[in-house]
Design goal:
heterodimer, A: about 190 residues, Threonyl-tRNA Synthetase, Chain A, domain 2, five-stranded mixed beta sheet, 6 helices, 11 strands, B: about 300 residues, alpha/beta, Rossmann fold, 3 domains, five-stranded parallel beta sheet, four-stranded antiparallel beta sheet, globular
Chain lengths: ~190, ~300
Amino acid sequence: MEFELEGTEQYALESYQWLLERILMDMGISTMVEKVRFVIRPDQTLFIISMRIKHSGSKRPVYDIAEMESKEGGTFITIKDESYAPRLISSLWRLYGRERVQQLTRLEVFVEDVPMEELADMKLDPEEEVRSQLLDAMWRLLPEGLKLRNEYFNDNVMTIVATEHGMTVDFIEEAKRVHANMIKGPEDD
Amino acid sequence: MYEVLMFDGGVHKIDELLDLIADVGGFVLQRTQVQVMVTLTIAIPAEDRPLIEKKTAELGGKIVEVPLAGTEIAVIGPTLGRHHMPHPICDIAEHLRRYGAITIVMGLARGRGRKTCQISAAEKAIIEEYDAAIFMLGNFKECVTHEKIDLYKDIQIPVVTVVGPELESLPHCEALVCGVGRKVERMRRSEEIAKLEEIADRVKEVIDKRRKEIEEDPLFVHPSEVKDALEGMDAVQECLRPAPVVLHVDGLRVKIPYKEHVRELEELDVYGRKLKEIATISDCRLGDSTIIRIKTKAEVEGKVR
């Protein structure tokens, strides 16, 4: 994990680097982060954290992890790769609602009124879970008093800018700049 | 002058030690017995310490110094949130207990933030009931030196401030320990334990100073003597809360409701005088407890009005 620190107080920067390392280690997701950038200026009450996530493999299509069978009134799915079961079911719940997704046994699911072709196009993103965990880590890290927060995120970069009262245009501009620089990737830094 | 010590040993012939403590005019402040092992926190006249040490050696026990025994200390963080509270504050409180102090931890209602941090009058009054306060203020130098110092500016008891960044000094506090900021895990590394020791040392100095100030105009009776009298009260004996009577440097906290027992407390006999004559008795801010502040000799004997 690579750190970039920028700010007015060395102690604060180093301690927050250490805190983040410990939080990620506690959550067991240290290896998921490629690069972190901190901008901490206590004199302006500005705290920016930006994180770039490592790619942990590509998205897997549903037919790769489950067998599907078209039935009257819907599609019957038998999950083959157990490790994807929670993610698949939660994706189905999110897309079609709990009423239409019946979990018959642990690995058998029936989705009402959805053709097989539609489900076959679905892809599962393994990074989705990691992203939510990393967001949790960032929320744990952010100083409690800095209640005004703006978030910027795309596929693999998350940036949060936080201040206490009065989010200024300058802060937002700076956060956007940090976010854009992180997106560019290692070769462009 | 009483000295507070801790005896650590077995139950065999412990009665001999208890008799000796009573004979020299001392008190047992706390007795904890686990099977055949006993820990006694005792207050004895300083000049009789060699007698107690001799008896302890005879019984195969040991005497441990507990420099903070007889004190109640508040460890205060900006909030009770996970950002401020769990690790450093609890570690400090736990470490001070090893030196005999009774500690409590407290989070302020609106203590977080830089410009928005506040302390209420009620919170200040609660803190002032303790012998000393430790304030943990965080990692940002700018925030600590410009804003957070206002949290403890008007507090009338000694304050030890614990901050992350290295600072030469801070106003309004009696002692400063740097290098302990936010933590997400327990303080168990050797350098962190050294910091806990440093905090305990600063607290000891602050308490010693307070005790010396009190010695200049000594209390009419030592708090442990009042404790001895209080323990005869039915309400205290029936109290199920841990440590129903807690010693302070200049008084006591009795964990029985003030309103119900104030008359009984006022009339309590201490060396032929009523407790109300030798102490001020007041309601505790935290409810269901009573604070007793012992007057000085000069106040009781009428030299000061």
